[in-house]
Design brief:
This protein is of the alpha/beta class and 391 residues long. The protein has eight helices and 18 strands.
Length: 391
């Protein structure tokens, strides 16, 4: 069996230890650094990912005595990930570029790169686990599981991977705890042992979002309208899950104009920073945005009723099954554990499967349900499927 694996060496400690573990397991390891972004517009100074990361990746490859290369995938990254980001924000939705990056770049384009080096596996430093089982006819099925370290689990970021992509993927650090990984990195004297974990957009880095988005989305002054808690006293909560999944649509007359903003497409539900409006008893949070009339609706306090939703809807074309063998039929329903953002604790919910898509009804109302984000559903610690939140 060919045991050649390409590791996406990012210049961080996680991928460095992943490469080390694979070499210890007898693989021929090839380290490749992906250059996927060049423009520094909106990138916070000192956080440009390409500046130091290539040097760290080279040092790790040299220490481990493995082959090292770089590959520039920036053109496709711009088309598949960044342009998608701009499009979603323009529509008043909040995308998750890291999930797209994994589906479109790390486990698609990068797989093609790996094949050029005669590798039959691609490995990353994700905190996740993969398990292979066989069904009744002997066909292999790949399970995507949460990491052993629940505080670092990144299975959510992999929620759009297919069975084919999982068949080629290796997650060597999925069984490790982060402190344990740091200790090992120091023991084997990796240059990345004390390097801080990266943050921000995949391959872009930490950004000032409005500045970054202004590359395509021009500033446009609009109203900030505060919705009082008393507004919700006259709202009847629907019992039908289809009606329950519809977000409240606000009008300017429902509240009081309290300020101005520079573009509704720069804001997202649950956001606190960037409003620059003071004089309130409690902090203001965005509870809704309307890019058509360029209005932001806000409420006071982190427990404002407008921040919470009991249900959401995902269009049929946006439903993705990691475990295709467990896909449900129209008219069925089942109980799952759900998360709608990274590091959110898994929440109990029932999913109703209909022709037009799926309706998710949570046991407890969820804060900050946002169109454009991904909802991922689990059975115990296995990620079963995911989809883009429509409403």
């Amino acid at each position: 069996m060919n045991k050649t694996v390409v590791v996406g060496l990012s210049g961080g400690v996680d991928s460095s230890v992943a490469a080390y573990l694979l070499k210890e397991q007898g693989y021929k390891v090839i380290g490749i650094y992906m250059i996927n972004w060049h423009d520094t517009t909106g990138v916070i100074q000192g956080d440009c990912p390409n500046n130091d990361d290539i040097i760290f990746a080279k040092l790790v490859a040299r220490k481990l005595d493995i082959e090292f290369h770089t590959v520039d995938l920036s053109e496709e990254y711009k088309k598949r990930v960044v342009e998608y980001m701009f499009s979603e924000y323009q529509q008043g939705r909040t995308p998750n570029p890291d999930i797209l990056c994994n589906r479109e770049i790390k486990f698609d384009l990068f797989v093609d790169v790996a094949k050029k080096y005669n590798a039959n596996f691609v490995a990353t430093g994700h905190y996740a686990r993969k398990e292979t089982i066989k069904n009744a006819d002997g066909t292999e099925i790949y399970r995507l599981l949460e990491a052993a370290d629940k505080n670092k689990d990144q299975s959510y970021f992999l929620c759009q991977l297919s069975q084919k992509q999982l068949s080629l993927a290796l997650f060597p650090i999925g069984e490790m705890q982060k402190p344990e990984l740091r200790i090992l990195a120091k023991k084997i004297e990796l240059a990345t042992a004390d390097k801080k974990d990266s943050q921000g957009i995949c391959f872009v880095g930490k950004v000032d979002l409005p500045t970054f988005l202004q590359q395509k989305l021009e500033p446009k002054e609009g109203d900030v309208v505060e919705i009082p808690e008393s507004y919700y006293q006259n709202i009847e909560i629907p019992s039908n899950y289809k009606e329950l999944s519809k977000p409240i649509f606000y009008f300017k007359k429902d509240g009081v104009k309290i300020g101005k903003h520079n573009g509704a497409h720069y804001y997202t539900i649950g956001q606190r920073k960037g409003l620059n409006i003071g004089g309130k008893l409690e902090p203001l949070f965005v509870i809704a945005t309307n890019t058509y009339n360029n209005t932001i609706y806000v409420g006071q306090g982190q427990n404002h009723p407008g921040l919470f939703r009991k249900a959401l809807f995902i269009k049929q074309e946006d439903v993705h099954w990691v475990r295709t063998d467990l896909a449900r039929k129209t008219g069925e329903n089942d109980n799952y554990l759900l998360r709608i953002r990274y590091r959110q604790p898994l929440e109990k919910a029932t999913i109703y499967f209909e022709n037009e898509g799926i309706y998710v009804v949570f046991e407890q109302a969820q804060r900050g349900v946002t169109a454009g984000q991904f909802a991922a559903w689990y059975k115990n610690d296995e990620l079963i499927g995911s989809g883009v939140i429509n409403s």
